[in-house]
Structures are given as structure tokens and as C-alpha cells.
Amino acid sequence: MATFRKLPSGKWQARVSKEGKEFSIGTFRTKKEAEIEAAKVEERIYYGQALNDRHMLFDQVTKDWLENKKENVKESTYVQLEVIVRNHITPYFENKKIMNIKRVEIKRWIASFGELDDKGKEKYSYGSRLKYLSVMKSILHHAVHELEVIEKNPADKLKVPVQDAVAIKKEKVKYFNLQELNQLLDFMKTYKHQRFPEYQLYYMLMYFLSKTGLRISEALALRWSDIDGDKITIDKQTSRDDNNKVKLTTLKNSSSYRTIKIDNDLLRELKKYKMKQNELILGNPRFRKNKDGIIFQNYNGHYLTPSIIRETIRGYCKKAGVDYKGTHGFRHTHAVLLLESGANLKYVSNRLGHKTIKTTADTYLDITEKIEEDELQKFASYTKR
């Protein structure tokens, strides 16, 4: 039978018995709250369920959450989560009891990242704050549903505040229009590398990315064995460890695993490129074969490094007289050209490996709206009386 007593502070303490020993389950604002909580604890005791420590520190909950994440997410994702926790969450909450963390504290915490600096800019971007709050919500969700040390998530339905004076601008999608793309590819087709002039690695890489929409990390992991006829299977990607050593990892999400078709023009270019690659491997001792049989290897037989690719393509764009759009620009280019040619959003979404069609629509919203407007104008012109 639970017992209750009013403390000098005005709060009520509740105590329950288990195996002949009485212990406190906490203090509450009213006797009614104490009675409700005591009833829940006694029910757990009756059914032999574990009693979790309601006085557990936030830091303990976070460590348990991270251990759980380590087993269920990619290594690179885990590293990102650990950094967010260590740098942006733990310093504020680590020594607090999980049951004492209030919603108002979380609101103050997330709002602090949006404060303006001396130049009138927010200290952290809106996107960063969204990530921090999402991680915090996940930790507290773990405390509620896995550890069962609190009854409800104090961060539930909490949103990132936006400064009235600061407009959140959607990041502009950078892509090559068809003229720019052809201008760049025409330049690359005739460009001769000093060491192996006939090995058109970067022409093939840029052409391939613009024709498939693959992420650069997906393309760099591709092997010749991943091509079967006119189909390419995407089931891995490259990443780099702390020593910049390449490793193959799982893809971003389940939707990223896909098989896509390629057109005859790309297939023909790939075959010519493969023949030249094999010719150099067999006929030139300075040109080494990659042990994994990857498509986009350098002459040393190594995987390409993203940072070197960025700088190299930036230089080629300058020589070709085309603005540099980043390596992701080729993925955006593929999507935009598909949409401009009349492909529907569902097809584009599946081809890019987006998790939902909403991701595709949100990314290319302005572009698709322009396409729809152009099509409507054609219809209006055609049916005008």
C-alpha cells in the first residue's frame, strides 16, 4: 500500500513497497498526482515488470540512446549524431535529471541557437536547428518508450522558432541547362589529359552523372559488374574514414537501393570507355587495374577522391566557360532535364532514389511550377478563340 506525506516545500512525496522494502518514487505538486503515479508503479510491481530509475540523469539516457543508434544506423550517421549530442545538447542538459527537464527549458535551448550575432545573422542555420531539435526529440522519445523513465516527451510537437526579421530562404537548386551541359561535355570530349590523353575519365564521369542522376558517392562505388545490359544496379556507395581511406558503405535509405535503365547513347559511350580502360591496363605498366573492378578509377587503380573531383571539375568548368554547379549539380541537371522532357514526378523520384515523391516535389517545386505554367500557356495558345 502506497503512503503519502506533504513536505515543507508544499509538494507531496509518494512511497511504495516492494519485497518488504519501502522506497520513494518522487515528489509531486499535488496529492492526486502522487496517488496516480503510485498506482502506476504498484501495477508494475504487481505484474513483475521492471522499475526504472526516475532519477536517471539525462547523460545516462543519452548514452543508452547512442548505443541503440550505433546498432541501427550507418556509421557515418552515428558519427553525425554523436557530434550533435556532444557539442550542442550534452553541455546544456547532461547533469539534469531526465524527469526534471521541462518543455520551457527545451524551448529556450533551441531558441538560443537562433540568436543573432554582431552582423545580424543567426548563429546557426535553420536547417542545423531542425537537426538539433530532431535529435533531442528522439532522445526523449527513447526515455519514454524504451527506458520508461518519463511519462511523456516534453519536446513533443515543439517547433524551431524563426526570427521575425529573418526570412528562411529555400536553397536554390544549381543545375546546368541543356546548352551549358552540352558546352561542358563538348569541351571535355576534346580535352586531352597530359598523362593519358586517350583516357577520358572526367568526360565519362560528368556524362554518366548527367545521364543517370546518381549521387557522386554512388557513382564512385560502381563496378563494371553492376551493369547488366541496359540496366545499372545501385546498392553501395563510397565514404572516407578519418584517415581519408576509402570504404564502401550502405546507401542513404531503402529507397536508394534501385536498378535504373540507361539509354543507348550512354551505353555506347560506356563500352568505348571500358575498351580504352582495358587497353591501357593490359598495354601500359603505369596504368593499374583497380582490384574491385570499379568503373571510375584513376590511372593508379585507385578510387577517386570527392575533394579532388570537385576541384578538378571546377577547373574544367572554368576552361569550358561554364559556371561551376558542384558535383551534385549533375544530379539536379538530370532531374530537371527529365522534368522538362515531360517525365512525371513519380518516375523521377524513383530514378533518383528519393524516399518519397514529396522530397522530389519540394526540391524541384519552382522548376516544376515553371514547366506547368509553360505547358498551360501552350494549351491556352492552342485553344484560344
From TrEMBL:
At the highest ranks, the source species' classification is: Bacteria, Bacillati, Bacillota, Bacilli, Bacillales
Asked if the Swiss-Prot or TrEMBL record annotates the protein with the keyword ATP-binding, the reply is no
What is the recorded name of this protein?
A: Site-specific integrase
| UniProt KW keywords | DNA integration, DNA recombination, DNA-binding
- According to the entry, every stretch annotated as the Core-binding (CB) domain falls at 56-144
The entry's family comment says: Belongs to the 'phage' integrase family.
Q: Does the keyword Cell membrane apply?
A: no
Question: PROSITE patterns from the xrefs?
Answer: CB, TYR_RECOMBINASE
Instruction: Tell me the CDD domains matching this sequence.
Output: INT_ICEBs1_C_like
Pfam families associated with the record: Phage_int_SAM_3, Phage_integrase
- Specify the Tyr recombinase domain's residue ranges: 171-377
Q: Which organism is it from?
A: Niallia oryzisoli
